[in-house]
Write a structure and sequence with these properties.
Layout (H helix, E strand, L loop, with lengths): L17 H12 L4 H9 L30 E2 L3 E3 L8 H17 L2 E5 L5 H15 L3 H4 L11 E2 L14 E6 L3 H8 L5 H27 L17 E10 L11 E4 L5 E6 L5 E5 L4 E5 L6 E5 L1 H6 L9 E3 L7 E10 L23 H8 L9 H6 L12
Parallel strand pairs: 1-10, 2-3
Antiparallel strand pairs: 3-11, 4-5, 5-6, 6-13, 7-12, 8-11, 8-13, 9-10, 9-12
Helix pairs in contact: 1-2, 4-7, 6-7
This protein binds 2-oxoglutaric acid (AKG) and fe (ii) ion.
The site of 2-oxoglutaric acid has 12 residues, from strand 6, strand 8, strand 12 and strand 13.
Keywords: Iron, Metal-binding, Oxidoreductase
GO molecular function: metal ion binding; oxidoreductase activity
Family: Belongs to the iron/ascorbate-dependent oxidoreductase family.
Length: 392
């Protein structure tokens, strides 16, 4: 694969120095992490043609680009979270019914008046842009190798037929400083202090939304509190940068997947690119971006904890040739072993999934690439003959 002389989509121009090209050649030759590292090359390659490793199989290509809006676009249900602090009972009831319905059908909802400080979001986005604009030879210091959960590299699913047209960075609240120091050894505080605060505030939003959704299941709002103690709450932040793509109709920024965690809280810029699969309509829908909102989606763990009532839905990111995109996905989760509460299990609606811990679930989550089949249904569903039994 030829290396070219400039870096489209990486923000301010980054002339390839001899050092950079040597670093790329070095990355390309490593076999231990070939899939991840191949992803790094993507964004440094120039040209009007999509490099072969990014060409998606025909059946996975976006049938709808994000450039076309109008009838392809869906305004996801928007829920004003301030209703849950209101003394106005009917207003609160309506907001509860709306968020529950959205999570039962789309598996996605947008929340506004979410309580996360707007200035902090902007500051964090600016820091994340600064991270992705670093030369690859610096970002390489924090490389995420296959099997690792944190670091830089967009292609963390194994066995992909084609690479994601994206750069990603995974960290959590506890290792943020350590990873930032790999990039800015003497100046990591600027990044880590914004990002740590951001994760803390988004985690707080995660707790509030999960209490509302728990209430929506007919349970006490605090029913899952013991899964979400300080110790058991584990959130990961995935920052996604989607560079300009020379042939967006053949590529994907992020392949179709379900989020494995409990809830995802996604903030995105105004570019747009998220698509959600609607099973009953058998179609992909574009989500109209709203920068004042967080997109909240149900992950596999919540699908299991709600005994299948809330749905973890297939989604993906498409890319375009005219505007880069940044999104920040906070995966809000528990390390506890999750099982649907007995209140949700009846003879008509028996227990759907066997209990599992996150440690067990994550082991296969990034090798499970069969697209439309869900890992949860494939590996954890209790067959109807044994439904109702509580396997351990
Ligand atoms: O960038 C997006 O809109 C999607 C991000 C996403 O689905 C993820 O990071 O899991
Ligand atoms: Fe996702």
């Amino acid at each position: 694969m030829p290396l070219s002389m400039s870096t489209p989509g990486l923000g301010p121009s980054l002339p390839p120095t001899t050092e950079l090209l040597a670093s790329l050649a070095n990355i390309a030759q490593r076999t231990d992490s070939a899939m991840t590292n191949a992803g790094l090359l993507s964004v440094l390659l120039q040209g009007s043609k999509l490099p072969e490793i990014y060409v998606q199989p025909e059946q996975d290509r976006p049938t709808k680009s994000h450039d076309v809006q109008s009838e392809l676009e869906v305004e996801l249900p928007v829920v004003d979270l301030s209703a849950f602090n209101s003394a106005d009972g009917p207003l609160r009831d309506a907001a509860l019914a709306k968020i529950v319905r959205a999570c039962e059908t789309w598996g996605f909802v947008q929340v506004i008046n979410h309580g996360v400080d707007i200035e902090l979001i902007e500051k964090c986005e600016a820091e994340v842009h600064r991270l992705f604009q670093l030369p690859v030879c610096i970002k390489e210091n924090a490389l995420r190798v296959p099997g690792a959960l944190y670091g830089y590299g967009a292609n963390f699913w194994l066995n992909l037929p084609a690479m994601n047209w994206a750069e990603s960075f995974h960290i959590n609240k506890h290792n943020c400083k350590e990873y930032a120091a790999k990039l800015w050894p003497s100046d990591y505080e600027r990044f880590s202090s914004s990002v740590e605060k951001y994760i803390t505030q988004v985690e707080d939003l995660g707790h509030r939304v999960r209490r509302v959704l728990t209430e929506g299941l007919g349970l006490e709002a605090g029913h899952f509190d013991n899964y979400f103690t300080e110790e058991e709450t584990v959130s990961t932040l995935r920052m996604n940068f989607y560079p300009l793509c020379p042939e967006p109709s053949k590529a994907l920024g992020l392949k179709a997947h379900r989020d494995p965690h409990f809830l995802t809280l996604l903030h995105q810029d105004s570019t747009g690119g998220l698509q959600i699969w609607n099973e009953s309509r058998d179609e992909w829908f574009n989500v109209k971006p709203r920068t004042d909102s967080f997109i909240v989606n149900v992950g596999d763990v919540l699908q299991a904890a709600s005994n299948g009532r809330y749905r973890s839905v297939l989604h993906r990111a498409v890319v375009n040739s005219y505007k880069t995109r940044l999104s920040m996905a906070c995966f809000f989760n528990t390390s506890a072993t999750v099982v649907a509460p007995s209140e949700l299990i009846t003879p008509e609606n028996p227990q759907r999934y066997r209990p599992f811990s996150w440690k067990e679930y994550i082991r296969t989550a990034y090798t499970f690439t069969t697209g439309k089949v869900s890992q949860l249904d494939e590996l954890y569903a209790i067959q109807s003959s044994s439904a109702g039994a509580t396997e351990q």
